Structures are given as C-alpha cells and as structure tokens.
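User: I'm writing a tutorial on reading structure tokens. Could you give me a worked example: one chain, its sequence, then its tokens, then a sentence or two explaining what the tokens reveal?
Assistant: Sure. Here is the example chain.
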Amino acid sequence: MSYRYTPYLLPFLLAFGLVGFVLLRAWRFRKTPMGRAFLWMLIALQVWTFGFILEIAAVELAGKLFWANIQFLGILPLPLFWFEISLLFTGHTKNIRKYLFLASLPVILVLLSIWTNDYHHLFRGQPYLDCTSAPFCILVNDYGVAFYVDAVFSYLLFLFSLALMGSSLVMTKPLYRQQISLMLISLAVPLTTDLLYVMGISPIPHFNFTTVTFSIGSVFMSIALFRFRLFSIRPMAYDLIVENMNDGIVITCAASAQNGKMASML
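And here are its predicted structure tokens:
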C-alpha cells in the first residue's frame, strides 16, 4: 500500500495527539467503573482517528478500504461506551451487564458484515475514489443496508444516553449541572457532525470530520473528569444519599471528599 501526505491530515493528527494526552491523564481513573468506560471510549476514538488518518493518506482504493474497515473497530463500540458512561453517571447500574451484552450483539453482527462484505455487499455496494472534490482522493463508501441499520441503532443509543444525562439535570445541584452540561456538549456536537455526514452534508463531499469534533468533546469530558471529579462518585447518588445525611462524614480518599454537614461543622 502506498501513502501520501496531505495538509488535510493535520487536524486529524492534532486530534489524535489531543485524545492521546487526555487518555494519559485519565489513566489514573482506570480502577473505577466510569473511569474504565471513559478509557475504552478514548481508545475506540483513537482507533477510529488512526484508521481515518491512514485512509486519507492511502493512495489506492484497496488501502483506503482496509483502513476504513479498521476504523469500524473503534466506531461501532463507541456508542456502547457512551451508553455505559451514561448509565453509570445516572446510577442505573442494575442489570448493566445485561444491557451492554444485548447492545453489543448488533455491533458484532455489523463487524462480521464489514469483513465479509465481498460475499454479500450488505455493508458496501461498489465503493470508489472521488479525486475531484479535494486535493486528494476520497473514499466513497457507497454504504448498504447494514451500515444504515447500524447508524439508526447507534443514534438511538446516543440519544438514549443524551436523554439519561438530560433528565438528571433537574435532579442534581448546580455544581453537577455544570458536569452534565459538559457531558451533553461533548456528545451533542460530534453527534450532529456525524449525522450531517450520513445525510451527505459536509464542506468536502463524502468526507467525515466527526473524529475531530469527538476529540474536542473528549476535552469537555476531561474537564468534567479533572475539574469536577466526575468519576469520583455518581452525582445523583451523591445528592440523594451523602448530602442528605444528618451526620457529618469525611471520605479519606485522594479526592478528600466531605458532605455538606461536615463542611458546616468545620
């Protein structure tokens, strides 16, 4: 496979580096459930971005198709990790493994359809290169029914995640509303970008900028993580249990947490 550099790679290289930096910063949260989900989400995003960089740089159709397929190893599980984060964040942890298992079944089926596409063409019809819309050749995937079924499923998972996060806005205190707002922004912007791409609306025809907006979204999530301690305790659980206790408590952990009663006593 042959590769060629183009300046259009620059925003995606920057996005890859940005997410890599966030991933390294978030590594210390790997022992918490939400921390692990966040790390897996970042890894999935890195796989997507890395594959897209090499797809852009590849010269031949076969090379672009190979790296496009690699991207879906990150694209397809991304909604699952967001779904898991939203469940953990809002305290809906009962039967979470069951929900994630059921939600992963369509992902596995679509992955199989991608790597066996030559036998049925359910995922792609007749992909080709568009060498007129940009200074480099763009892969036109000519997506089939399997892609659009997965797109609907992924958007439903993302929308359900947004609904869970949004519904918690009215149930938490102002501090946690800032967290939730950052979470909503970090998902809503790239989701809109991707939807426009699927609808064929893009500054460059057939070119997807979603990895860049997802990378920016990861920065908003990292702000919630590092500044507001998003993964130290579930905000809704904190409001309902800890802050409503009559006794003062201090949690001896790295976050040096205390509830409102103890704060007034001190």
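What the tokens reveal: Strands lie at 128-130, 138-140, 250-251, 257-258. Confidence is low (pLDDT under 50) at residues 253-260.
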